[in-house]
Every structure is written in C-alpha cells, then in structure tokens.
Design a protein that fits this description.
Blueprint lengths: L2 E7 L3 H7 L10 E7 L4 H14 L2 E4 L6 H14 L4 E5 L3 E3 L1 H13 L3 E8 L5 E3 L2 E4 L5 E3 L11 E4 L4 E5 H7 L11 H11 L3 E12 L3 H6 L7 H18 L2 H4 L1
Parallel strand pairs: 1-2, 1-4, 2-3, 6-12
Antiparallel strand pairs: 4-11, 5-12, 6-7, 6-11, 8-9, 8-10
Length: 251
C-alpha cells in the first residue's frame, strides 16, 4: 500500500526529530512529506538538515499559510507521487509504527471513511475519541458525553492532530478550506466529508499521544494560550457557522 505521511511544520523541528523520525522507515512504500511554513532561516535550515538525514520530501513555503493550506500543499505532492492513502500527523503528536499501519490499512479498506485513532494526552487520559460540535451555540464535547445533551443538533468531527483517508476520498471532498488559516478547519472538513456521504470513524485499536499546544510551546516556551489562540478560535467558530449553517442557525 503506497501511503504518504504529511506533516505541517512551523518552528517545530525539535518535535519532528523526536516524533516523526519514528515513522520515517515504517514501510518501504511510504513517503514522508514535510511542509514547512516559514518561521525563520535557522528553523528552515534545521528542518532541511533533518529531512536530508531521513529522506523526507519537503515543501518549503515562503510564508506561514496555516495548517489547512499546508496539508493541501503536502497532499498535492503526495498524490502526484501516487499515494493511495494520506496519513496526516501533527508535529506534537506521537504515533507508533503499529498504530500508523492500523490507520493506513483501515483507510485503504474503507475508502469512503476518514479514520482517526484514540488520541491521548501524555498522562494517558483521553484527549479525543471523536468530538461533536453543537449547532445551537458552537460548543464542543466528546461523543462519549452525548447523553448529557439530548435532542441538541450536532455534527461529529475528528481532530486534525492525526487522521488517515484514501486518496479517493481526499479528491472527492477536496482539500481543507484555506480561509480558516488556524483552528476549525478540521471541523469544517469533517462536515464536508459527511455531506458527500463519507463516514467518520474512530479506530480504537490505534492510539496517538498528543501534547496539545506543543507546537505553540516550541515557538513560545513556557507559555500556554496566546491572545492569537482566542482570536482565531472565536472567529473561525463563526466562520464555520457562516459556511455550513442556515441563516436561522447562524443567528
């Protein structure tokens, strides 16, 4: 099975050195495509050196286009190279080779499905096992909490931290909506997968460990939520509503 691992980098070469290198030689039919959203010449040099050492393909952008646009550029390269399955992984997500193979094989077996693992925090607690966005107020909750929200309209989504899908589904749905730049692009894309008749699947036999905010901390050590986090998260929540909901739902 010819698969491609796609990672979008922004100042996170240290995370790639510890996380992505483990997947570099997972399978002779797999390639690794790293899309570098420019964050500085020193980081670009570190990334290029890592890529040369491990045989990664690189897409070196001249500016930071955002996560969705970065994945789109990586997918273009992977699909042109004949990838049949795309596996997208955040720099701050650790995925074992075994779990990576489970996701790739599941996506190949279910070409109309977008597959995600159970995503855990470093302490072992569940960070995401499928999420819902509630359409009445835009709040988010894990699908395991549905019993607390009876009767509320919702749409399921899976985190962009780690997922796999067939090249067939990618081309059917199209890439990420690039107007999001940051946050909610994964919620929007899951919405579109369901709209075209696709399926969102959590494969509980695969596990990823996500150090949430690790990419931010790599750029801003010792800090957590920034003003930009709130700015983009709030604005993109409203963008999602404008793109996907009726006028009455938007109000």
């Amino acid at each position: 099975m010819k698969a491609a691992v796609i990672v979008v980098n922004y100042g996170s070469s240290g995370l790639l050195a510890s996380n992505l290198t483990r997947l570099s030689h997972a399978d002779s039919e797999w390639s690794v495509v790293v899309v570098d959203c420019f964050s500085g010449s020193d980081e670009r040099e570190r990334l290029s050196r890592l890529a040369g050492q491990h045989g990664w393909k690189t897409v070196l952008l001249e500016s930071n286009l955002g996560f969705g646009a970065g994945v789109n550029r990586g997918a273009e390269v992977a699909l042109a190279d004949g990838a049949e399955v795309l596996l997208v992984v955040n720099p701050d997500a650790y995925l074992s080779i075994e779990s990576a193979r489970v996701l790739v094989e599941s996506a190949a077996a279910k070409p109309a499905a977008m597959i995600a693992p159970i995503v855990r925090r470093p302490d072992g607690s569940v960070w995401s096992a499928g999420m819902d966005v509630y359409l009445d107020d835009g709040s988010l909750a894990g699908i395991r909490h549905r019993h607390r929200h009876p009767g509320r309209a919702r749409r399921m989504w899976i985190s962009g931290a780690c997922f796999a899908l067939s090249a067939q589904l990618w081309m059917r749905v199209g890439g990420f909506a690039e107007e999001y730049f940051l946050y909610w692009e994964d919620v929007d894309r899951c919405h579109r997968v369901v709209e075209v008749g696709g399926e969102l699947v959590i494969d509980e036999s695969a596990v990823a460990v996500h150090d949430e905010g690790g990419t931010q901390n790599a750029v801003r050590p010792g800090q957590s939520r920034s003003e930009l986090f709130y700015y983009y998260n709030i604005r993109k929540r409203l963008l999602y509503a404008r793109r996907n909901l009726s006028a009455s739902e938007l109000r």
